[in-house]
Amino acid sequence: MIKQELTTSFYLADLNELNSEEIELIEDAKIALDSAYSPYSGFSVGASVLLNDGKKIRGNNQENVAYPSGLCAERVALFYVGAQFPNHKIKTIAITALSKSFEIEDYISPCGACRQVMAEYEEKQDSKIRILLHSPNNKVLIADSVEDLLPFIFKSPFLKKY
Ligand code: THU
Questions:
Q1: Angle of the 73-84 helix axis to the 112-125 helix axis, nearest 10
Q2: Model-level pTM greater than 0.85?
Q3: What are the tens digits of pLDDT across the range 134-145?
Q4: What is the residue extent of each domain of the chain?
């Protein structure tokens, strides 16, 4: 048995270190918070996806009384892109959050299912998606690709092999 180690890389930045396009995308994700539907958790998540032609697509979490029927902000935005702009490339996704009951001090980190969906779209478009995780204290964690946030991604060759 051999123990292996895995390293990953990401950037930590202050909001004002980002370029204007990325600052605007984070502002758009904050606007997306306004229409989050999160009566059960009180935890609102906003996402904004930047397409290659400059369009920004907003998503927010949509909860449901039957809890598993709800959907995360990231997937709401990404599936909208997949449905409405299937031939556009996704350049960047910005994600932020706001809680009714406590001060969020850390970066919002996308759940595993949302990372898997990001991985699917990276594979589909054959280019990386930059990910901006915004913390309400205006710190930003930046990943160049979902590959840096999700090791051992399940990808289509696994299916095609057999
Ligand atoms: N949520 C998101 O929208 N995105 C994430 O990456 C993590 C969690 C939502 C799901 C649920 O509506 C609420 O946050 C609390 O988990």
A1: 30
A2: yes
A3: 998 999 999 999
A4: 11-149
Residues with catalytic function: 74
pLDDT in tens, 108-153: 899 999 999 999 999 999 999 999 999 989 999 999 999 999 999 9
Give CA torsion, residues 83, 74, 156, 67, to 10 deg.
-100
Q: Which two tokens stand for residue 99?
A: 């809680």
Give how far the C-alpha of residue 50 lies from the chain's centroid of Cα atoms, to the nearest Å: 11
- One-letter amino acid identity for 51? L
| Residue with the two structure tokens 């895995």 | 6
Ligand 1 neighbours, Cβ below 6 Å, are: 38, 41, 43, 45, 61, 63, 70, 72-74, 110-111, 114
Closest CA to 63 of 75, 78, 51: 75
Which residue carries 């959907």 as its tokens? 71
Write down the CATH number for the domain with range 11-149: 3.40.140.10
- For the CA of 38, the closest atom of ligand 1 is 12
Residue type, 127: S
Nearest to 51 by CA among 129, 142, 133: 129
